[in-house]
Specification:
The chain is α+β, with helices and mostly antiparallel strands. 22% of the residues lie in helices and 27% in strands. The longest helix has 20 residues.
């Protein structure tokens, strides 16, 4: 049974001119890159780029006649190949088999060779695909993918081969196209202004990039093949196993194969867009109810580029991800949060339920594009209040949630200073002096203060897409740091936030867990614990800090990573420091959190005390191991 778009080539008269193998081979070798490009453009995009590349080469390499063959009575090409019957013959063979490859197997009684994966050439362990072009090429690729095989053939013959419509008719008729008029009308839907793009590297299967296949699956398949070979050697009867196969993946498609979900994830038309008022009635207040904003939400080319780079970032794309955040492509169509011009860049922000992905490219091209990921699963109302939209010249712009009604800038180091209004334009703040990239002496730490229906919140930029929330109080009973008491508490310790940059931090809490009277009537020192919780749950960072009376900044006395100290599950903490009095005497000072019944120091300095505080004379540079006993008898170790 023949497809309605492909029919057998009519037999030619014995008086027709002929093409011999040598003539066809010379034309194939001379024009091989153009022929492979033609095949690649006509082949159905549903094959996937790797298989299209390999199939295009296979079709061209199989285009030689077995002997002397009738020459087609059609033009070679309007420029450069006039009268070349060898080229006309090979091009016709390539076009015919490329059209046949697009016919679904269910429409043929017996599969044709071009419809099956090629035996040669074969590439093992690598995926091959042409180099990525620009926005116009991606847009053209999408338009061509919507056409039928004959429609793509018409467009390519017009644009790449520069044939007139009459010549295109003769070529398609000879290639077996049943409805040439429909193909011509279909191709008219794609603007002819894009013909020049057909010569782009986006459609050049001879200039390729290579990436590895699924290495873990390849290892599994290798082991499975060895096991199967051993089984066959033991019992040859197993060669005829019944059923559909017993592979570990069942009916799953091979790695990197095209499937409807993967294709939908790359289609800008299928992006999820939330209406502006959905959040008002929704039980959820997180990124899933953010509306799509920005002045380029209708720019299909930009959205297509952002999705394509997310799925397969090129070598020139700068990719970053917070710890514990996967950087693979989306499983389905993501949600569009923003697409617009921001300072000197075009920015697209997407959300797939687990991650925020931000794509940014310069306004004057795509060179220097960047792709950033941040994990945001489990975000609550405050955590989903803002995203970093852009960083430029040391400043940060934020995109805020639709429930945010006000934004201001505040310097944490200045206790009495007021907040400076930033203003909001379609949810985007004015530039805020950033703290995350600052180097040198810490003289200020600017934070973002947001106002919504529940109150005010302080957020700080730690060099990632999602700013970290700042709180104060005992673990398990924390509160916002936006009040006057919270700002006073954070002021001496704000600069220590620099130690938590680029760690996937979700929130940082500051807990004043002890106050200690210093020896020699030197006043009262404060002990503070700051704990950074991460989006991934692991990699938490804890700093125990000590501040002498009147000190501008706190000093880090001890720290821990992946520790339970100062956390909601087990808030107990113990830390110590060597301190020198005004008289020049050295002391070992230690403080435990409430619930500590005794402290003991061993090693370079030995001492003990009942209660949660210890102060003992020590020598300069002495080292000590601290142990604390809790009211319930448990023993904890001091942070180092």
């Amino acid at each position: 049974m023949q497809s309605q778009d492909v029919a057998p080539l009519p037999a030619s008269s014995s008086a027709d001119p002929v093409v011999d193998v040598e003539q066809a081979e010379a034309a194939l070798v001379e024009h091989y890159p153009r022929l492979v490009r033609l095949a690649y453009l006509v082949l159905p995009p549903s094959l996937g780029r790797n298989r299209r590349v390999v199939t295009a080469h296979a079709l061209v390499q199989r285009a030689l006649p077995k002997g002397r063959a009738p020459a087609p009575v059609i033009p070679a090409q309007s420029t450069g190949r006039d009268g070349d019957l060898g080229y006309a013959f090979v091009r016709l063979q390539v076009l015919r088999t490329a059209l046949e490859a697009g016919v679904p197997l269910r429409l043929t009684a017996w599969p044709r060779r071009s419809q099956l994966p090629p035996l040669l050439p074969q590439v093992w362990g690598l995926r091959l695909f042409p180099r990525s072009g620009g926005a116009d090429e991606l847009a053209l690729d999408q338009r061509l993918s919507a056409l039928s095989g004959p429609g793509r053939a018409v467009y390519v013959l017009r644009g790449l081969e520069e044939l007139s419509d009459g010549e295109v008719r003769r070529v398609l008729a000879a290639a077996g196209c049943a409805d040439v008029d429909e193909a011509l009308n279909e191709a008219d839907e794609v603007p002819s202004a894009h013909y020049r793009l057909l010569d782009s590297s986006e459609f050049d299967p001879c200039s390729l990039q290579a990436r590895p296949t699924d290495l873990m699956r390849r290892r599994q398949h290798t082991r499975a093949a060895l096991a199967a070979a051993a089984a066959v050697a033991v019992c040859g009867a197993l060669l005829a196993l019944p059923g559909d196969g017993w592979g570990p993946d069942g009916a799953a498609a091979p790695a990197y194969a095209q499937n409807p979900a993967a294709e939908a994830a790359l289609d800008p038309a299928k992006l999820v867009r939330i209406a502006p008022t959905v959040w008002e009635a929704s039980a959820r207040t997180d990124f899933s109810v953010w509306p799509a904003r920005g002045d380029l939400t209708g720019d299909q080319g930009l959205l297509r580029r952002a999705l394509a780079v997310w799925a397969r970032p090129g070598e020139s794309v700068q990719v970053s991800a917070t710890p514990g955040t996967p950087s693979g492509g989306p499983a389905g169509p993501p949600q569009l949060l923003y697409a617009g011009n921001v300072d000197s860049a075009r920015v697209v922000v997407l959300y797939d339920g687990l991650r925020i992905a931000r794509y940014a490219e310069p306004k004057d091209g795509t060179k220097g594009a960047a792709l950033d990921f941040a994990r945001v699963d489990g975000a609550d109302r405050t955590a989903a209040s803002a995203l970093v939209l852009d960083r430029a010249d040391g400043n940060v712009r934020y995109l805020t949630a639709p429930w945010v009604t006000g934004a201001a800038e505040r310097d944490l180091l200045k206790k009495g200073a007021g907040a400076m209004d930033l203003g909001l334009t379609a949810g985007v703040t004015s530039p805020l002096a950033g703290a995350a990239q600052r180097t040198g002496t810490c003289t200020s730490w600017n934070v973002l203060q947001l106002t919504d229906g529940t109150g005010r919140h302080l957020l700080t930029d730690l060099g990632e897409l999602v700013p970290a929330r700042l709180t104060t109080g005992r673990p398990g009973a924390t509160h916002e740091a936006s009040g006057a008491a919270g700002q006073r508490a954070w002021a001496p310790y704000a600069c220590s936030l620099a130690a938590m940059r680029s760690s996937g931090v979700r929130a940082v809490n500051l807990w004043e867990y002890a106050a200690q009277s210093l020896p020699e009537a030197s006043g009262t020192a404060d002990w503070v614990c700051t704990r950074a919780e991460t989006w991934s749950g692991g990699g938490t960072r804890v700093l125990a800090q000590f501040r002498t009376p009147g000190g501008t900044y706190g000093a880090v006395a001890a720290k821990g990573e992946n520790a339970t100290a100062c956390g909601a599950k087990d808030p107990h903490v113990l830390a110590g420091v060597l301190w020198k009095s005004a008289a020049g005497h050295w002391y070992l000072l230690a403080a435990g959190s409430p619930g500590t019944s005794s402290i003991a120091a061993t090693g370079g300095s030995s001492a003990s005390a009942r209660g949660s505080l210890l102060a003992a004379r020590a020598s300069q540079g002495a080292q000590a191991d601290l142990k604390g006993t809790l009211d319930d008898g448990r023993v904890i170790s001091g942070l180092r």
